[in-house]
Amino acid sequence: MTAEHSHLPVEGEIRIGVYVCHCGSNIAGVVDVAEVARWAAENLRDQGVVVARDYKFMCSSPGQEFVTDDIKKYGLNRIVVAACSPHLHENTFRTATARGGLNPYLCELVSIREQDSWVHTDKAAATVKAKAILAGGVERVRRNEPLSPMTVDINPATLVVGGGIAGISATLEIADAGFKVYLVEKDPSIGGHMAQFDKTFPTLDCAACILTPKMLTAGTHPNVELLTWSEVEKVEGYVGNFTVTVRKKARYVNEDLCNGCGVCQEKCPKKVLDEVFEAGLGYRKAIYTPFAQAVPRTPVIDRPNCTYFEKGTCKACEKFCETNAIDFNQQDTVLTLEVGNIILATGYDLFDARKMQQYGYGQLPNVFTSLEFERLSNSAGPTNGHIVLRDGVTEPKSVAIVHCVGSRDKNHNSYCSAICCMQSLKFAHLVKEHTEATIYDFYIDMRTPGKGYDEFYQRIMEEGGIFVRGKPAEITDVARTVEEEGKLILQVEDTLIGQQRRFPVDMVILSSALEPRADAKELAVRFGISCSFDGWAIEKHPKLDPVATMTEGIFVAGCVSGPKDIPASVAQGAAAAARVLGRIQQKKMNLEPIKATVDAEHCSGCRICNTMCPYNAISFDDAKGVSSINVAMCQGCGTCIAACPAGAISGTGFSDEQVLAQIEGLLRIGADGMRPHRSGFPTTHHEAIEEAVRA
Amino acid sequence: MSPTARSNGGAKPATKPATKPATKPAAKATAPAARAGGKPKLAIFGAASCGGCDIAIVNIHEHILEVAAAFEIVLWPTIMDGKYSDIEAMEDGEITVTLVSGSMRTDETVHLARLLRRKSKLMVAFGSCASEGCIPGLANLSSRKQILDTAFSTTSTDNPEGIRPIWEYQAPEGVLHLPEFEPMLRTLEQVVDVDYTIPGCPPESKQIWAALQAVVAALDGTGPLPPKGAVLGAGESTVCDECARRRDVKKIDHFVRIQQVASFDPEICLLEQGLPCNGPATRNGCGALCPSVAAPCIGCYGAAEGVVDYGARLMSAYASVIVASKPDEIDKVLDGIADPAGQFYRFSLAASLLRSSRTAWNTDGEQ
């Protein structure tokens, strides 16, 4: 439907085209879109609206053609599209506007979907709200100015943070394409959680067999600079031109001299419980590589546990080292890297099962976490793959596997950890393979979406695992019967038969939730990305742009953005690499011209804004006594604009005038029958005040 | 705040004030020439105010003679006798400049503001009350009923018969009208069109003189007429611009009240020492008098050029530099601001985007 009232364009006149999208039934199901378009054409004429249309899918090719054609047909010089969030289609309609011959920044997108139809059920009220939102956009667009994007060069080097399978995949894709990658890993070796696993579901490939070749390739690739035992401390700059500060912790071993022979580890007299790689089930030395296939093979000295650092004598490692690689005087080094793009693949932490005291982890010795079981079943692990109880010798006769420990649980994490069902099935198979034990699988719902996953479930059922639908209420060693004595008893409501049951077993494996890294929020701040309340990184779009973030040049891969299995992590690593390679190939890219600037005349040099900028774009000029903003580094986030008490900072595209005009527009609907309620937000018009005073 | 205050000789609006702002003559872009055969006329009128603005004008000392020489003063109730009926008898636009100090509290002040607007070529909101409501504007945190209850019925008031003001009284001679206390205090600009603003509580005398000189020069034709809407007698930046204290990057982990600390570092920014100083948000022009003697700026010069809501700006600025990350830590820092409404809106509540508390807005019609 179209409503128009054309007359010949007058010089300097604002001529606005309004496009209201149905979004199928997403918007039209709640908002009377035809009425909104009709209303705009009739009531916003004085604001410059020349034509208003509604259409089923405004983002489709015919929808966009309305915009491009109308610009010529009606001499439009401003466009307002009332549709979905600008996150999704701002670029689409700006591009359509540009095709019509207008500066793309003269197009404004207002959301009547996320901010209206999706959150309301009252059709009449939602339609009024859509009109208000649209009127706000019209007032705003009147004040939009043509802007030109800034062009910056893209540094072809990339930083990948995190050397798990996602980070390694991303690294190799980029390095193979011929570009430099810095791979930073906080642990002494790359490999991540996958290196701890024995088998992978559903194919039961040996994890080491498929991972270690990739690790080795990453470690020896001419385009990869591996920085293990290192952490990113600071990130400055912007897409294409990041400056990253990395702290390379002292290894006390000279990487250039070490040949990785391992004699130092052999000779070191100090045994240390390995809480990290062996999940507390095994020991390593004070000088160590986490595992035999570590990349790089250069070990690190664990300073707090090293006898020499503790007592001043020992140096066994130094004595036996043939290449004189041990260097007790080594210091941390701080490196400054210049990169164009960054991929975050920092992975996950395992839920601390101690938080669920009713399951007795930490108190009852034979309750194991999933990571402990991975080590227990790993042929290269502390028991050489023998599945035994905590005493190290007894083979269990019955094993319970508990799903959803710390996930799908309102008290801990409400989300599903995605991998636990399949992981638990894998455990069931491994127990079956290695022992004679009876296996009980306690699940809430069995979730096996994925290629070959449900077939794997069928196979495990055929292998004789006993599946009990119910979440155990308690795991205890307090026996009620003779049969229960000396056992761990799981108290559970079997929801399929509606009965409380007790299962005495020898061993319990808790399939713990995947959680964001403990420092996930600091990481988000350091890299200037958003994360959810839990701490998972937020993607630019969960479906259409799952490896990009809202910050240009920063990408995510793997579990940093949520629980994922290995195939998904590998795919994300490659996807992030593809996005980065696309940027590198472009060589240059356009930056949004939305920037903040300081009006030096109005700046009093109070320095309130100085610490505000997440991109470190603000500096203080002592001589002039004013603050200034580096335009290239400014991302237009607006933080400083809000902070400036003098109103001396303004943002292109987000001036106070534009924002206030938009608010005035939102309130204009009052004149159309729905006056803002007296107890609500007072209108800014003097008449309304007058009316209130006289009431 | 008695509603009978400033009734000034029983002057009563001849007619009930119109419900719409009177249409006013548009200020001319060019300097209004002095009327042939006479000096330009000047009116100085105080609405709801303390009289401090009048004193600040007189405080230009001997320059007042130059003002008297340049203008024919037609109304200045604080200083000289005058009748509103004389003003009513004038032609529209006959007064060249009117300075209005004080805010719009009663229907009488509203009526006179409209009258003077009609009769004046240039209308100046003089001082904080007229331009942003000032201290009297804090009454907008309370409903009219609450204000009258406090004034007439609290224990400090000796009013055993519970007498309350009434706006109309049937006397033997006829109906008497008293100025009605309006439900909400308004600024001058919320009632009539304003050409210029001179901020300050009160404006600094040397700034008043500078502003008057600019107007005189414009009338003489020796200087440009400031553009409509201009703020005269002040700068465009904030008090920090004139403050000599040394400033560093701001990180505030606590706020203190001035009486809680024995002394402050004489060199360093007061805000950095935890004293809530409004200097960063307050328009300059006063010469940073308060912070120079270790008293925090309280914001009497109002918002900087282009700022719409002073208090919102200042709150946003304070919030930006608080170094605490957990909600309870942040709350603890903010608890150091003992009186948020007074801290952020001491002078500008009536001119703010909110204008009043919800209580005042909702119960404005009650007695």
**What structural class should be given to the helix and strand makeup of chain A?**
alpha/beta
| Spatial order of strands in the largest sheet of chain B | 2-1-3-5-9
For the sheet with most strands of chain B, the description reads:
5 strands, parallel
The CATH topology of the domain at 350-515 in chain A is FAD/NAD(P)-binding domain
What strand order characterises the main sheet of chain A? 1-3-2-4-5
**Overall pLDDT of chain B:** 86
* CATH-defined superfamily of the largest domain in chain B: NADH:ubiquinone oxidoreductase-like, 20kDa subunit
What's the end-to-end separation of chain B, in Å? 15 Å
Q: Regarding quaternary structure, how should these chains be classified?
A: heterodimer
CATH architecture of the largest domain in chain B: 3-Layer(aba) Sandwich
Structural class of chain B: alpha/beta
- The number of helical elements of chain B comes to 12
Topology:
The complex is a heterodimer of chains A (695) and B (367).
Chain A: E1 2-4, E2 16-21, H1 33-43, E3 49-55, H2 61-74, E4 78-83, H3 86-99, E5 107-111, H4 123-142, E6 150-153, E7 158-161, H5 165-176, E8 181-184, E9 199-200, E10 205-206, H6 207-220, E11 224-227, E12 230-238, E13 241-248, H7 263-267, E14 271-274, E15 282-285, E16 287-288, E17 300-301, H8 307-311, H9 316-320, E18 333-339, E19 341-344, E20 348-350, E21 367-369, H10 370-377, E22 398-405, H11 420-434, E23 438-443, H12 453-462, E24 466-469, E25 474-476, E26 488-494, E27 499-505, E28 507-512, E29 514-516, H13 520-527, E30 554-556, H14 566-586, E31 588-591, E32 596-598, E33 618-621, E34 626-629, H15 639-643, E35 649-651, H16 656-668, H17 686-694
Parallel strand pairs in A: 2-3, 2-4, 4-5, 7-8, 7-19, 8-11, 19-30, 21-28, 22-23, 22-28, 23-24
Antiparallel strand pairs in A: 1-3, 6-31, 9-10, 12-13, 13-18, 14-15, 16-17, 20-29, 25-26, 26-27, 32-35, 33-34
Helix pairs in contact in A: 1-4, 2-3, 4-16, 5-6, 5-14, 10-11, 11-12
Chain B: E1 41-46, H1 52-58, H2 63-70, E2 72-75, H3 84-89, E3 95-101, E4 104-106, H4 107-119, E5 120-126, H5 127-132, H6 144-153, E6 168-171, E7 174-177, E8 181-186, E9 196-198, H7 205-220, H8 289-292, H9 310-321, H10 327-334, H11 340-345, H12 358-362
